[in-house]
Amino acid sequence: MSISILKPSKSLLCGMRSHKRSRKALGLVSIAAMATLPTPALAQSTPTETAYILNSLSFLMHGFLVMFMAAGFAMLEAGLVRAKNTATQCLKNIGLYSISGLMFYLVGYNLMYLDVSGFIGSLEIWSAAPAPSVEEAEAGSYSAGSDWFFQMVFVAATASIVSGAVAERAKLWPFLGFVVVLTGLIYPVQGSWTWGGGWLSELGFSDFAGSSIVHSVGGWAALAGMIVIGARTGRYGKDGTQRPMPGANLPLATLGTFILWLGWLGFNGGSQLAMGTIGDITDIGTIYINTNAAALAGVISSMIVTQLVYKKPDLTMALNGALAGLVSITAEPLAPSPMLALAIGAVGGVLVVFAVPLLDRFKLDDVVGAVPVHLVCGIWGTLAVPLSNADASFSTQAIGIVAIGIFAFTASLILWHVLKLTVGVRASEEEQILGLDKSELGLEAYPEFGAGNSSLI
After folding, report:
1. Do the beta carbons of residue 375 and residue 215 sit within 8 Å?
2. What is the pLDDT at residue 49?
3. Which of 254, 185, 212, 194 minimizes the C-alpha distance to 415?
4. Which of 36, 148, 290, 312 is the most exposed, having the fewest neighbouring CB atoms within 10 Å of its CB?
5. CB atoms within 10 A of CB 238
6. How many CA atoms lie within 13 A of 229 on its CB side?
7. Helix 315-330 / helix 250-269 crossing angle, nearest 10 deg
8. What does pTM read for this prediction?
9. Dist. CA 195–CA 115, nearest whole Å
10. CB within 8 A of 270, min separation 6: which ones?
11. Is the pLDDT score of 22 beyond 90?
12. Which residues contact 390 (CB under 8 A, 6 or more apart)?
């Protein structure tokens, strides 16, 4: 089936997600004014054609930034795992990105955006219609291909969250098998409830760029995997004592965090879903400012709290504090004032500091802190939407959080159990001691510094 290029985006499908950023409300006054300027490019195009080009360009440019987040996740995880598992973690990240794109093409996009029942979309392969003529183009329209690309890179981010949480003990192929179902079924089904115009959208649930739809879903899937797979060998003693397993390359983890921070501007800014008017580009600037503000507040608050609680700051907590602020503001990065954005991000940074040891208390081994960052702060960010968006309510936001959580966690828990009982998911104790790089791939990420050093000339 061919999808019309003029198909409304995820915001238009759900009543503009109850935001003030309605393209129809903004109109084409600014484009019309631009068209009167004596420039060759604008003189040869209509206001609608110009808006179509700029809207499509926004999807593509912001999509590039979100794709770059895949590198950020890979570097963050490669830095926070031990050296003997680094190559495996890099392979998982490039593998999950590829699988996510394939599954979103085969089934995910139409399952998410061709909503036929309010609960689930259509099981059809995505296909783009030819470009419209100038006469056929409508205000606020964009190319179908640019929209598909932008939505696809969001799916990969969800899978990356799971990768870091279950690192160092989840086998490669069973994990990638989980990614197939997560990106092809679990993510798009719950996404259709809001961004596809489904029942949560009709109810008034608001999630601008995916604190719940993207991040909490990855967190719920990760939590289910941690429960089923169990902790890394030696991580916890029988008496509840903890054995720290620090990452091998904290500079690399820091680089990954900065890459994610940069990519998040595309994640949230591109979710404006238009760039064809003065109002749209102004809103994108506001989104950038609030997104950045929340991240820097998350860093500072996490540093202060770790100093007060543990008598010294912690780099990994600061890195997760930045990500916590970013996740927290993602549900509504446009409406808050910069001061409120700072407050929302700061709360996220504090939550991470207390959520990490809470997981350890229950012997839930999260290698990179994915659940505290993406699940805990995803819930917080979604609940914070009514603080600045008068069209949202705390009760409706809570309903959305619970509905998405029950579906994502239950489906993931069942899938992890099926994989455990069939092909097996957990690497053996011997494989974990040796390292997954050697046991799964037969190589080392740092041969000059590892066991392979003796064989090198």
Report:
1. yes
2. 86
3. 185
4. 312
5. 5
6. 37
7. 10
8. 0.89
9. 10
10. 58, 59, 61, 62, 63, 65, 66, 150
11. no
12. none
